[in-house]
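Dissemination and training. As part of the outreach component of the grant, students in the summer workshop were shown how a complex can be specified as a set of sequence lines and then modelled as a single object. The example used during the hands-on session is reproduced here so that future cohorts can follow it. Participants entered these lines:
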Amino acid sequence: MSRRVHLALFTSEAKLLAALHSCRDKGLTILDVRSPYPIHGVDELAGIPRSRLPNACLIGGVVGLSLALWFQYWTSSIDWPIDVGGKPWNSLPAFAPVAFELTILFAGLSVIFGLLFRSKLLPGCRGRISDPRVTDDCFELAVTRANAALSDAAMADLWRDSGAIDTSEFVEDIR
Amino acid sequence: MSIPVLRAPDTKWGASAVHALSVTATVCALIFVIGLFAEPQRAWSGFLIGFHALVGLAVAGPMGLAFFHLSGGKWARSLEAVPRAMAAALPAAAALGVVLVFGVHSLFEWSHASAVEGDAILEAKSAYLNVPFFTVRLVAFFVLWYVGARAVLRASSEATGDAADQKRRRLRAAAFFLFLFAPTWSLASIDWLQSLDPHWFSAIYALITISGVAVAGLAACIILIAAVDTRDQVTEAQYGDLGALLLSFALFWGYIWYCQYLLIWYTNLPEETPWYIARLAGDWGLLTKVACVLCSALPFVLLLFRKLRRSRRALVRIAALVLVGRLVDLLVLAGPPLMGASARLGLWELAPIAGSVALFFLLAIRALRRTAVGARSGAETAQHVVTHSAPATSLAGTASR
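and obtained this result:
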């Protein structure tokens, strides 16, 4: 099966959001919004489901915390116990700062690597970008007419009325 | 898109709460007065803790506004009537401060000449820690805070001039207030709390008390916002942002608390450890744990869940726990030198604490009632709506702007 994807490019956030609203009103399915910076709340508006990245963050944090606690316990009370200022070998207060830092580090890194992995942006990959201007000063909307009975002419009108500076379309295979 | 400014829904709002709170505050004040004759030392101990709770909640209003203005966050612009109302308790806090001067001899060891004489440390500190200078400082703090808070409040409620002009005035007032407030609060927390243990000192102490003020003030602010929001005009996203802020302040308090604990635990010096030894043994140990759980650990874990952050019911309950935790925290900070090895919490201590908290909510709710349309009030009714872009709801607005 395949579907036709329409792309439209806008010069401002306001125009993009207006176009997003009219696309929704016309029953078009919104596939993606591309913007040089995050637009607060646009995910809900475009009907894009909530990201699962926070789960990766939680798992990373828990792993970092356990690893830090275990490693400090193992080094200072099992493998090489040293008397420091008469403190007990297994001193939780002393472990806390490192445990805290490693929790943050692992949580942060797991989000970054989770994002790169999910977006197939591994080292050596070539960037696949529909229009380089969305990394600069333009906003792009990707929609499909999946369930909407909208003629090609109506589609062109829609883009013209909403002030798109550039439009294109292509057919994409979906499984 | 403009979001209506949060204000009291009608002139009847809060009437019964004001009634109940004024009865509570009056009864507690009477018990305190009786306590002054029956058990003066215990009554003054409770008074000091209650005074701190009241001052903290009152200054949290202008402090929170100053944070919002300086960080430029627009999401809370429509809610600013609430922190403004919290500042209405500042004159009452100043009045309690004047009362505190009469209790100095029942509370502070350094105020007795017999205790200072022959004690090298206290003699050296007596140039700063003496009753006349203490009184002068106390008055100066409240005068400066009042002046600063007025500037912040005026800039926050102002609706004249263009947006850039208003913003500049808000920034200037906020910077002015915080510049005054940070050093004076540091001295005030040394005067009113740290000097209860006059041989002990900690450079991070003021940061612990100010982070406590921030977390408890935001908790009180959330409770008041939810109470005044009877028409569901505060969006779910705004509650979510308040919850996220509460999470970060709770974490901040825990972080600062632990900073002091870790350094003292690590160095293990005889002039530093007695403060913690007194607070980690017996009753006090339990209360310290309760304060840490309620002010930091529990809100942190609960507020990680987006559902709880964005739900008004859950958020108010978490905020109430934080507020209780803050009172326990103040009890642990002030209690051991006043009450001895075990926490003594009877009517004489609890009445002034409960009375101060009731007085704060009474004054804040009374100030909020004046924001109702039709209520007698000054400049504030002129400002009906404020333009700002709140997340999610504003997208339609930004598009049509």
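The mean pLDDT of chain A is 85. Students were then asked to discuss how this feature might be tested experimentally.
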